[in-house]
Specification:
It is built from 14 helices and 16 strands. With 450 residues, it is α/β, with parallel strands linked by helices.
Length: 450
């Protein structure tokens, strides 16, 4: 924990906006794509996919989550020093999305009310919001006017119709309120990084959907997150924050682990990779070996050509071992609760995990959270924070009720929205920001509809 009574910085509160439409993935969608229901519900872990209406885009969702946050935290524009937006659904090659967001919020709070607020848009695939949080945390630590910061994640995950990644789409926005001496999570300001040039997932300029190399992307994710975890563990030890004794593991000091969630099953793969990697250095490895045998290649008995298959087989056995299943159930499983009903929201999915823990009343003062963020291309960042005692008094977000109230859409409606062929909204907007039009120069115009 911070020394010399210095103020902590971290996440004081958060708000989540999800479109009011969803596509059920079993039934009509699964039949039309020839996908077994079990693959979607159990193999991928997604039940419903949030879909933006015709009047929505990443900027309207960002503005809505910020408006929800400001009302929930009774925040005034003049209190906010910076608004950083992490997104890979950029609407302009130059203009920052945050300026559009500020323009929308000023329709509610008054023209010029955010004029002293700085904003920037950050792009680094799905890690962008986490890098924005890291950057803003350092600014906040040195801020001397009692300003607060806001970090917004807002994305529409979009792949071609009938493509392998289609069922991992989703949409939504998360706004994080950063303050000194926060009520929710104090950041321990230890960040472990990993970066490597990869072609696992990218979206060339001018393209509306991404290029995805699925299996390769999964492996890049696992390599990067374990690399960032090692970087974090070394830095945390040097700072005296996590110093395992003989036989202990770093993950023994983490009460919950939150990961980027491209689809819920991926958090199982990510946590299995981290636990397996971490446990090699402590007593747990012996217990695992007693259950499933030694690691592939140990003792030099495996042919090098056979190692990949042996490694894949061992990874599957590890993910079914009692040791891992116990740790996963206690520390990871609940973080994917909301994502099962929303889908992938790219840069904000890891913070849907935090919202899940808040909604499920799983956060207790003194717990340490470990965050493993990943961005294709590829980069990862692992960091930690401590849950504050006041977190237990924060009101719920009401997300479970809001998700139940959404409107299910048909496959035909979804495909029209996906392709931009539906001009009229499925549900008439009310008390929300809407994309009113795009002029001849390509400038986007937004309005708040009462």
């Amino acid at each position: 924990m911070p020394q010399n009574n210095a103020p902590t910085v971290g996440i004081d509160d958060l708000a989540v906006y999800v479109p009011g439409l969803y596509l059920p993935l079993e039934g009509e969608f699964a039949r039309s794509r020839g996908i077994d229901r079990g693959k979607l519900i159990k193999g991928i872990g997604i039940e419903r996919m949030a879909v933006p209406d015709a009047h929505e885009d990443a900027a309207t969702m960002a503005a809505m989550s910020l408006l929800l946050l400001m009302k929930r935290s009774r925040l005034q524009p003049e209190q906010i020093g910076k608004i950083y937006v992490g997104t890979e659904s950029s609407l302009d090659e130059a203009k920052a999305m945050g300026t559009y967001v500020i323009g929308m919020l000023e329709q509610v709070y008054g023209r010029g009310s955010f004029r002293e607020c700085g904003t920037v848009e950050m792009k680094a695939a799905c890690i962008a919001t986490t890098l924005a949080l890291e950057s803003q945390s350092y600014w906040l630590a040195g801020e001397d006017e009692d300003k607060v910061g806001v970090v917004i994640a807002s994305d529409v995950a979009k792949y071609p119709l009938a493509s392998p990644g289609e069922y991992t789409q989703g949409a939504g926005s998360v706004s994080l309120l950063l303050k000194k001496n926060p009520r929710l999570v104090s950041l321990e300001q230890v960040y472990g990084h990993f970066t490597r040039d990869e072609n696992d997932f990218f979206r060339p300029a001018g393209c509306t959907t991404a290029v995805v190399n699925g299996k390769h992307s999964n492996q890049c994710y696992l390599d990067a997150v374990t690399g960032a975890f090692d970087s974090f563990a070394a830095r945390a030890a040097r700072k005296g924050i996590i110093v395992p004794a003989a036989g202990q593991c770093v993950t023994d000091f983490l009460d919950h682990l939150l990961f980027h969630i491209p689809y819920p099953r991926m958090v199982e793969y990510a946590s299995a990779a981290v636990f397996r990697h971490d446990w090699k250095s402590c007593q747990r490895s012996r217990k695992v070996e007693e259950e499933i045998g030694p690691e592939p290649g140990e003792g030099g008995g495996k042919d090098a050509a056979a190692l990949p298959a042996a490694e894949a087989y061992y990874a599957r056995r590890f993910a079914r071992s009692p040791q891992f299943l116990e740790a996963f159930s206690a520390k990871v499983k609940d973080t994917a609760t909301l994502s099962r009903q929303i889908g992938n929201i790219y840069t904000g999915s890891i913070y849907l995990g935090l919202a899940s823990l808040l909604e499920l009343d799983r956060l207790q003062g003194g717990q340490r959270l470990g965050f493993g963020a990943y961005g294709s291309g590829s980069s990862a960042l692992f960091f930690s924070g401590r849950v504050e005692p006041q977190a237990e008094d924060l009101p719920g977000l009401g997300l479970m009720e809001r998700l139940v109230e959404r409107r299910a859409i048909t496959l035909a409606e979804y495909e029209m929205l996906h392709e931009g062929r539906k001009e009229k909204s499925v549900v008439e907007p009310r008390r929300e920001f809407v994309l009113a039009g795009i002029d001849s120069q390509g400038y986007r115009h937004y309005e708040f509809v009462e």
